[in-house]
Specification:
The chain is α/β, with parallel strands linked by helices. It is 41% helix and 12% strand.
């Protein structure tokens, strides 16, 4: 789904509209100004520093030379600061932990100055402290900076605790959308995952 929304593979039916235009009519540079993508696929960029990796996010705005202006460098630094990665700026990507690398990848996406962030299993392979930190960053970007953040995950608890709205794709069934409390009360989790999983789901502020 995320790859289709990002224009990386064609839709099975219908079309994707971005800012009122068919995604297929947008060139790579124009699309990158609207959407930024962070996938689970590991990109081989070990020869770059964290700053150089984030600078790649300015590609949609540079001319044919690819040179960054002072304003671009300022945006790169702000993007690193937004995810708390200023101290990683000069380090090689090869030296970074999975959690540090994920923060830098999010900073690269932010450097594109997109309206929408698409993230695929962004907390996969991270330990608990880094999962919490990455989700805190994404919530702040959504609530404080007005970014639209669309995150795919198999971690039900993570989704329930952090998402403002959920899309659930039951096997063989239609997409179900709603807030966490609304979906819990509807019984869709019990029907989808079974009672054992449903018993683990709790609304914030409720003891059961």
């Amino acid at each position: 789904l995320l790859r289709t929304l990002a224009g990386m593979q064609p839709p099975l039916a219908g079309r994707v509209v971005v800012a009122g235009e068919d995604l297929r009519e947008l060139g790579p540079r124009r699309l990158a100004r609207h959407l930024a993508v962070v996938l689970t696929d590991r990109i081989v960029v070990e020869a770059l520093t964290a700053t150089a990796l984030v600078e790649l996010g300015r590609y949609p705005y540079t001319g044919w030379s690819g040179r960054l202006a002072a304003a671009d460098h300022a945006i790169v630094q702000r993007s690193l600061a937004a995810v708390g990665a200023q101290d990683l700026a000069g380090r090689s990507v090869a030296e970074l932990s999975d959690g540090e690398r994920q923060k830098v990848m999010i900073a690269r996406a932010l450097a594109q100055e997109p309206e929408v962030l698409l993230l695929d299993e962004v907390t996969a392979f991270l330990d608990l402290p880094h999962r919490v930190e990455v989700l805190r960053i994404l919530r702040r970007l959504a609530h404080d900076e007005g970014k639209a953040v669309l995150l795919s995950t198999h971690d039900l608890e993570l989704a329930l605790r952090n998402a403002d709205r959920l899309w659930l794709l039951p096997k063989g069934g239609p997409l179900v959308a709603g807030g966490a409390g609304e979906l819990i009360e509807s019984g869709v989790f019990e029907r989808t995952f079974g009672s054992a999983v449903a018993e683990m789901v709790a609304l914030p502020g409720r003891v059961s």
